[in-house]
Design a protein that fits this description.
By secondary structure, the chain is an alpha/beta fold. The chain has a four-stranded mixed β-sheet with strand order 1-4-5-12, with helices on both faces. It has a three-stranded antiparallel β-sheet with strand order 6-10-8. Strand 4, helix 10 and strand 5 form a beta-alpha-beta unit. Helix 12 crosses helix 13. The protein starts with a helix and ends with a strand. The chain binds uracil. Uracil (URA) binds next to helix 9.
Length: 443
């Protein structure tokens, strides 16, 4: 069996399936033993590119996922009661703040939700960047603080520690700068290795489809959702995916502090944008059903809606924020930072909002400073878009299509141009598009 790096790279370059032994050798070579990793960055990048071009079958992808999971610590949640350990993961979108509401809803319905989340990637926002807009919020708490948060709130939204799937951490950094991110098997193994290492009992995936999705073509977005479900199941983790619409900003805001403010309004019942409500309840219900906390989807949805409407989920969110170092009264005074410049984006003509290029809107937020141009950049939590008009909204000439929140006048003026270019106004409304396109159940 060929297990030297150059032999494994050549095998994939020539279109062969890698054996589990070869995959294990690669992953072991990514993690430094005694300070030196056996595979150089160049070798890891060459294999990543060979995988992008040649693909991997399901068995290879399962082997890669499991090897990356085993590359670090596997978390266990003993001493926190016998609640099922559940989580949701989105493939990434614009304005996607669902995790902020779903985690406390599902916790209120009886689950333990240790949600290991990520930062913004490309045009998509990251849950940790959003929560860190709350002054003091610690996304990498010490183990004791994390446990205390889970005991009190039932949920904790945190980042992956350095000990969780370290092979993915190294490979991801290499992929990020070698044009090897967009690969269904590599994305699948990257996402699932962290989820499997988080010791979950069941996982629901939100497979985003549309102009703001990471995989731009609908077919590839569906392929990714199918791969995530089948590989999770192949690795022993019960999983399902909902395919949900990302052809427009989800909810009314995009940008870190603005999205947290919308999430708090949603939880407290001040404002629940209908598509965001549908997406949140559908995913929460799917997870409660899959995790055995409800006998069917109807009962699961009723339980999720009750957790939200009673205010109990909002209370859990507040307890999570306080336990992780954020403001003590997140529902009353979240102390979110505010941008100094707020400017409307006036509709260039009367009509209906007919289309949004959600990716371009996400990039406008990045350009405002709300996301990163390069890994390691700081994000400006204050900036972004709010009051974004949903598809089908009738607008008068000059009426705001959204408001830009910016650090200065020049950035605001540029963002206004970008938003105008990303939104189409027509005389007729577009056809209604469902929020949930379908469900991927796998085996
Ligand atoms: N998110 C991840 O964690 N990994 C990927 O490869 C892509 C998105």
């Amino acid at each position: 069996m060929a297990v030297l790096p150059q032999q494994i790279i050549a095998a994939k370059r020539d279109g062969h399936a890698l054996s589990a032994v070869q995959v294990d050798a690669f992953v072991a070579g990514l993690v430094a033993e005694g300070g030196v990793a056996a595979w150089s960055d160049a070798q890891a990048a060459a294999l990543a590119m060979a995988i992008v071009l040649r693909g991997m079958d399901r068995a290879e992808t399962v082997a890669l996922t499991q090897a990356m999971t085993r590359s670090g610590e596997i978390l266990r949640w003993r001493g926190l009661g016998d609640r099922p350990v559940l989580d949701k993961h989105s493939t990434g979108g614009v304005g996607d703040k669902v995790s902020l509401m779903l985690a406390p809803i599902v916790a209120e319905c009886g689950a333990l939700v240790p949600m290991v989340s990520g930062r913004g990637l490309g045009h998509t926002g990251g849950t940790l960047d959003k929560l860190e807009a709350l002054p003091g919020y610690q996304a990498d708490p010490a183990r004791g603080r994390l446990h205390a948060c889970l005991l009190d709130a039932g949920c904790a939204i945190v980042g992956a520690s350095a000990t969780l799937a370290p092979a993915d951490r190294r490979l991801y950094a290499i992929r990020d700068v070698t044009a090897t991110v967009e690969s269904v098997p590599l994305v699948t193994a990257s996402i699932l290795s962290k989820k499997l290492a988080a010791g979950l009992g069941a996982l629901v995936l939100d497979g985003k489809v549309g102009s703001g999705a990471v995989m731009r073509e609908p077919q590839r977005a569906r392929e990714l959702a199918g791969s995530l479900v089948e590989v999770a199941q192949g690795a022993g983790l019960p999983a399902r995916a909902l395919l949900t619409d990302m052809d427009q900003v989800l909810g009314r805001t995009a940008g870190n502090a603005l999205e947290v403010r919308e999430a708090i309004g949603f939880l407290t019942g001040t404002d629940r944008e209908p598509r965001l409500l549908e997406c949140t309840l559908a995913l929460a219900a799917e997870l409660l059903h899959l995790g055995g906390l409800a006998p069917d989807r109807t009962a699961a949805r009723t339980a999720a809606a009750r957790a939200l409407d009673s205010g109990a989920a909002a209370e859990r969110f507040a307890r999570m924020v306080a336990a992780l170092g954020g403001p003590r009264d997140a529902l009353g005074d979240a102390r979110l930072p505010v941008a100094p410049v707020v400017r409307p984006v006036p509709a260039p003509q009367a009509g209906f909002v007919a289309a949004q290029d959600a990716r371009a809107l996400g990039m406008a937020v990045v350009a405002l400073g709300g996301g990163r141009r390069r890994g390691g950049d700081a994000v400006d939590p204050r900036v972004g878009l709010d009051a974004v008009r949903a598809l089908g909204t009738r607008v008068a000439h000059g009426e705001p299509l959204a408001f830009v929140h910016a650090a200065d006048e020049a950035a605001a003026a540029q963002a206004v141009v970008e938003v105008l270019a990303a939104v189409r106004i027509d005389a007729l409304p577009p056809e209604d598009a469902p929020v949930v396109h379908g469900c991927v159940e796998g085996r």
